[in-house]
Specification:
The protein is α/β, with parallel strands linked by helices and 218 residues long. The chain has 10 helices and 6 strands, in the order E-H-E-H-E-H-E-H-E-H-E-H-H-H-H-H. The chain has 2 domains: 130 residues, 3-Layer(aba) Sandwich (Rossmann fold), CATH 3.40.50.2300; 55 residues, Orthogonal Bundle (Arc Repressor Mutant, subunit A), CATH 1.10.10. Helix content is 52%, strand content 13%. It has a 6-stranded parallel sheet with strand order 2-1-3-4-5-6, sandwiched between helices. Strand 3, helix 3 and strand 4 form a beta-alpha-beta unit. About 4% of the residues have low confidence.
């Protein structure tokens, strides 16, 4: 395999340094650039034209999914691997639809990074082992529940926690502090919940949650 020129896009310096340090000893990989937000990722991709991009999903200014869509539109030959902490299938689906070649979790081991790079550079797709298992489980669960009402939607434990906090009239910042997660993660979950449930207001969201007994009004 020829030398793979890699751009890493992530807003956490620790992740940028960690991936660089992990891959640098392998002479088949060359880190040609870094980006700390989606907009910068698009700009550097157009300038550097790397072979592969590790793309975080939750980034400021422009998220990784939108950045992937823009890059693939202008440079379709670039391979983009999502690098994220989100395991939910909705993120996987959105990333692949945007043109991503694969989905890798940030806590993956070095051998999985190398395997993912080799596979996508050969024109294949790659899903993190844990994500693959989760999607298979979801598929089996979906088949079993085929007789369920059409409007039944599966929410993750974290999404339900956030809905409960919304019902308590907490702001996104307060929810982030209570659940010990970043503000951006709360915003991403909240946006995803609204899209998943096809609701446009908090009132509609809470009505759905009450019907499904996620929350209760006393």
């Amino acid at each position: 395999m020829k030398t793979v020129r890699i751009l890493i896009a992530d807003d956490h310096q620790l992740i940028l340094n960690g991936i660089s340090d992990m891959l640098r000893p392998n002479k088949e990989f060359r880190i040609v650039g870094r980006a700390t937000n989606g907009e910068e990722a698009v700009s550097k991709a157009l300038k550097l034209k790397p072979d592969l991009i590790f793309m975080d999903i939750s980034m400021p200014i422009m998220n990784g999914i939108d950045a992937t869509r823009k890059i693939k539109k202008k440079l379709p030959a670039i391979h983009i691997l999502a690098l994220t902490q989100h395991e939910e299938k909705e993120y996987v689906t959105q990333m692949l639809k945007a043109g991503g070649s694969g989905y890798l979790l940030k806590n993956s081991k070095k051998d999985e990074f190398v395997e993912a790079i080799e596979l996508v550079m050969n024109g294949n797709h790659y899903l993190s082992r844990k994500v693959s298992e989760q999607m298979i489980s979801d598929l089996i669960h979906s088949e079993r529940d085929n007789s369920s009402p059409q409007d039944e939607v599966t929410l993750t434990r974290r999404e339900k926690e956030i809905i409960v906090k919304i019902s308590e009239e907490l702001s996104n910042q307060e929810i982030a502090e209570e659940l010990h997660i970043s503000l951006r993660t709360v915003e991403t979950h909240r946006r995803n919940i609204m899209q998943k449930l096809k609701v446009k207001s908090v009132v509609s969201l809470l009505k759905y949650a009450a019907r499904r007994k996620i929350i209760s009004f006393h």
